[in-house]
């Protein structure tokens, strides 16, 4: 089967898209991935068996047009045109759309193509938009129309053939909200680690000082919605009695919160206990995880974050690290079911500090949780297992 995947980012990187495409290729399908070209990359190349077709557009223009997606139709028309071109050139049998906002051009193109259409929801898209700092700004409030987006979500879910979601909990939320949708319209494909490739990345044992410090590690966006402000507040509490506990932060600061986080990171009351390394190539991330004692995922508990579990949680666990997570439902369920760490109340710096100190003071407990974490990934929560429903879906479509 020739699968046309649609993504409005430059590829690579996108770990989830790449994992899905490779798995489908290994299952005997041909995947043609339509993506953007922000740099001078080839218009066509094969990467890990995936046929990558790129549309040249500037990143700035792409972002502006996507922001205005419900105001002017240029973005939808532009992508729909290239979807039809992709289908005609490569004989596409089925369209696989990545994320809600691309469903409109997918549906527009499909009026003529009349193909099966799969919607792959990487997140609760409307709730994600609500959580971004931009939509809270004056310009964002003028452009972002929440009611229009919810109406659009309803329309799309009722017009596509299959809906891929990240968790059983996310599926249950949709079924409660749209009771005329059927259970078998949904396919649950959680994130997961491709163990062979992840564990084969060489480790640099000198990324963090071996000075007796106890390291917490977080990587990803540095933003309030990710709970990093609460994490820094927790470090202030911890530092009063345990200055040897340090928080390692890898990632870019949200541009709308840049000055706030720069001030927090450089605050004299906590500066010596924060190690901010900025954005790091993914190949460096396992080294930082390996050199740390506990993995942290403090995301704010909300409808967006309860759509699934972040890859970072599985990656911490794959390297045998106990985790501390907020009580966002899917990740709380995972940690409690596998006994791989501890859960704190989202937004509660005192509770987070207490959980960190408990694990710091109990080495035996950390070791047990770390072993539980690694075992859970090896036996169940790895990509070979989590991708099986996706393969089965394509076998039956």
Features of this protein?
19 helices, 6-stranded parallel β-sheet, 397 residues, Rossmann fold, single chain, 8-stranded mixed β-sheet, globular, alpha/beta
Q: Could you provide a short overview of the structure?
A:
This protein is an alpha/beta fold and 397 residues long. It is built from 19 helices and 14 strands. 39% of the residues are buried.
Question: How would you portray this structure in words?
Answer:
This protein has 397 residues and is an alpha/beta fold. The chain folds into two domains: 2-192 and 384-396, Rossmann fold (3-Layer(aba) Sandwich); 196-379, Rossmann fold. It has 19 helices and 14 strands. α3 crosses α4 and α14 (311-318) crosses α17. The longest helix has 17 residues, at 74-90. The N and C termini lie close together (10 Å). The mean pLDDT is 95.
List the SSEs and their pairings.
Layout: E1 2-10, H1 15-26, E2 30-37, E3 44-47, E4 50-56, H2 59-67, H3 74-90, E5 94-98, H4 103-113, E6 116-120, H5 125-131, H6 133-136, H7 138-143, H8 146-157, E7 162-165, H9 168-177, E8 186-188, H10 195-199, E9 214-219, H11 228-239, E10 245-250, H12 258-265, E11 274-278, H13 285-291, E12 294-297, H14 311-318, E13 323-326, H15 329-338, E14 341-344, H16 349-361, H17 363-379, H18 383-386, H19 388-396
Parallel strand pairs: 1-2, 1-5, 2-4, 5-6, 6-7, 7-8, 9-10, 9-12, 10-11, 12-13, 13-14
Antiparallel strand pairs: 3-4
């Amino acid at each position: 089967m020739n699968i046309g995947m649609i993504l409005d980012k430059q590829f690579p990187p996108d770990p989830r898209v790449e994992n899905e495409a490779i798995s489908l290729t290994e299952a005997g399908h041909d995947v043609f991935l339509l993506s953007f070209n922000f740099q001078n990359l080839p218009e066509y190349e094969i990467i890990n068996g995936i046929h990558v077709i790129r549309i040249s557009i500037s990143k700035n223009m792409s972002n502006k047009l996507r922001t205005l997606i419900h105001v002017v139709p240029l973005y939808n028309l532009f992508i729909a045109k290239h979807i039809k071109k992709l289908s005609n050139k490569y004989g596409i049998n089925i369209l696989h759309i990545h994320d809600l906002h691309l469903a409109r051009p997918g549906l527009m193109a499909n009026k003529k193509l009349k193909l099966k259409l799969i919607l792959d929801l990487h997140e609760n898209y409307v709730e994600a938009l609500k959580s971004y700092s931009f939509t809270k700004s004056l310009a964002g409030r003028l452009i972002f129309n929440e009611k229009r987006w919810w109406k659009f979500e309803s329309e799309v879910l009722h017009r596509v053939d299959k809906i891929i979601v990240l968790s059983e909990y996310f599926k249950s939320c949709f079924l409660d909200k749209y009771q005329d949708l059927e259970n078998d319209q949904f396919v649950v494909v959680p994130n997961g680690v491709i163990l062979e490739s992840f564990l084969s990345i060489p480790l640099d044992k000198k990324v963090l000082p071996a000075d007796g410090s106890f390291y917490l590690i977080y990587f990803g966006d540095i933003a309030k919605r990710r709970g990093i402000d609460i994490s820094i507040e927790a470090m202030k509490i911890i530092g009063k009695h345990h200055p040897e506990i340090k928080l390692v932060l890898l990632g870019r600061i949200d541009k709308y919160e840049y000055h706030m986080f720069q001030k927090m990171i450089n605050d004299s009351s906590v500066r010596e206990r924060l190690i901010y390394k900025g954005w790091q190539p993914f190949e460096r991330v396992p080294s930082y995880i390996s050199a740390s004692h506990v993995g942290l995922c403090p995301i704010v508990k909300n409808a967006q974050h309860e759509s699934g579990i972040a890859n970072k949680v599985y990656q911490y666990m794959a390297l045998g690290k106990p985790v501390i997570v907020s009580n966002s439902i899917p990740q709380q369920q995972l940690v409690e079911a596998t006994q791989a760490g501890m859960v704190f109340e989202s937004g509660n710096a005192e509770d987070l500090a207490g959980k960190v100190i408990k694990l710091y003071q109990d080495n035996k407990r950390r070791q047990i949780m770390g072993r539980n974490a690694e075992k859970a990934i090896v036996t169940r929560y790895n990509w070979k297992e989590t991708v099986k429903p996706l393969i089965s879906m394509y076998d039956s479509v």
